[in-house]
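hiii so um. not sure if this is the right channel but i have a protein structure encoded as tokens and i wanna go backwards to a sequence. like what aa goes where. can anyone help
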């Protein structure tokens, strides 16, 4: 796929991730010949500004993809299952942000910095991984390449953005209600998120892990082509608007020092070392929000031994965790 410019469709263009995709396409000056914005019937007819020009949002339908080269989907799993095959049948390559196709053996699951070659094995659809998985693997891939990882124990502290624009608005509304002494309303989450920590992201599975936690395990094994890798995740929702944080402890097959890990991370694209504990400098959502790079800090030899490391990683869920990764896959395809 090599042209001077491309016809691009964005399905879910009025959502948080869809809006960020448009912003990133503009920032990175993606070569666009035609831009088609698609959303549900509720959003059809709205106007969205891109590069100073107003674009009308059309209703997402099965015949929406004629003459489209790349379709960037961020409309949810059910809509992806319904409309992505139609986009492929129309000749488009679909890059899907939902969970619909991630574990399909015929669909590559791709982080460009981690497993770029897999993207070219597509049969019309390429899946974007779960945001929490992306943030974790951006930090771990350079270390995995140095010494195979045997075991990952991870706890995530996930921002409201991971549940979409309505969830972010709910957190904002709860803060406003608290400040004004009004009753706090709860709709998007099982409990009030403001001033709270909820140890549940997505539904619980029969093994008592949540679906989000199993996504982290299954997707990591798929992208690293390592079915024997052992992963245990605990995913938690916290009252932060953007950027997910993760506490990660890793066991390697061979010995690895923090000094070696730091050098590997410093050379890896898409991550930034933020690790100066003497001056209390470490990754935080406050500073990682809105940035492309995932930030890594608090790298230390874990007390389990010389084959273990622990670290703290933060990445913007809407950017690298979703929209940026999708656009990078599109850039990979046209490079």
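sure thing!! here u go:
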């Amino acid at each position: 796929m090599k042209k001077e410019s491309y016809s691009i469709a964005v399905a879910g263009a009025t959502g948080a991730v869809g809006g960020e995709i448009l912003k990133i396409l503009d920032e990175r000056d993606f070569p666009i010949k035609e831009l088609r914005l698609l959303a549900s019937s509720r959003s059809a007819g709205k106007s969205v500004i891109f590069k100073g020009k107003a674009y009308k949002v059309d209703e997402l339908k099965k015949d929406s993809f004629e003459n489209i080269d790349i379709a960037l989907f961020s409309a949810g799993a059910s809509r992806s299952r319904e409309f992505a095959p139609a986009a492929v049948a129309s000749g488009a390559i679909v890059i899907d942000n939902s969970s619909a196709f991630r574990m399909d053996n015929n669909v590559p699951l791709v982080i460009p910095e981690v497993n770029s070659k897999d993207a070219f094995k597509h049969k019309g659809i390429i899946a974007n991984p779960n945001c929490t998985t992306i943030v974790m693997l951006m930090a771990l891939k350079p270390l995995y390449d140095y010494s195979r990882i045997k075991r990952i124990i991870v706890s995530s502290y996930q921002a409201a953005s991971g549940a979409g624009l309505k969830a972010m608005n709910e957190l904002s509304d709860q803060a406003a209600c608290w400040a004004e002494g009004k009753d706090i309303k709860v709709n998007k989450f099982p409990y009030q998120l403001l001033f709270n920590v909820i140890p549940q992201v997505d539904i619980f599975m029969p093994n008592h892990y949540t679906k989000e936690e199993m996504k982290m395990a299954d997707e990591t094994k798929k992208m690293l082509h390592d079915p024997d890798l052992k992963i245990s995740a605990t995913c938690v929702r916290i009252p932060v608007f953007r950027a997910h944080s993760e506490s990660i402890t890793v066991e390697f097959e061979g010995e690895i020092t923090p000094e070696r890990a730091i050098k590997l991370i410093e050379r890896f694209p898409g991550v930034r070392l933020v690790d100066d504990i003497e001056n209390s400098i470490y990754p935080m959502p406050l500073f990682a929000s809105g940035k492309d790079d995932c930030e890594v800090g608090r790298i230390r030899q874990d007390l389990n031994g010389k084959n273990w490391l622990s670290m703290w990683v933060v990445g913007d869920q809407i950017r690298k965790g979703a929209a940026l990764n999708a656009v990078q896959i599109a850039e990979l395809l046209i490079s």
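oh and The first helix runs from residue 16 to 27.
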